[in-house]
Specification:
about 0% strand
Length: about 90
Amino acid sequence: MHDETDPSDSSTSNPGPLARLEARLEALESRIAYQEHWLETLDGAVADKEHRLDQLERLSQLMQARLREQHRTLQEQEGGGYSPADEVPPHY
């Protein structure tokens, strides 16, 4: 005779509460693993973009400094002295 309450029996059409709970737990664990993977991927992407943004900001500052220096040199060559009023405010 076959015992229908045997939890190891996978042939029953209506799984018991324990089997349903285990299936839900496995699904949740799978989702968590997937989300952890994407969180690590996104963290890496954000760190890369932050590094690139820092590089671009340094490059922009360097280019602004060189442009100001060239502007001063050009004004000195034209005979007009450099005036701080000619410099564009930093927010432009």
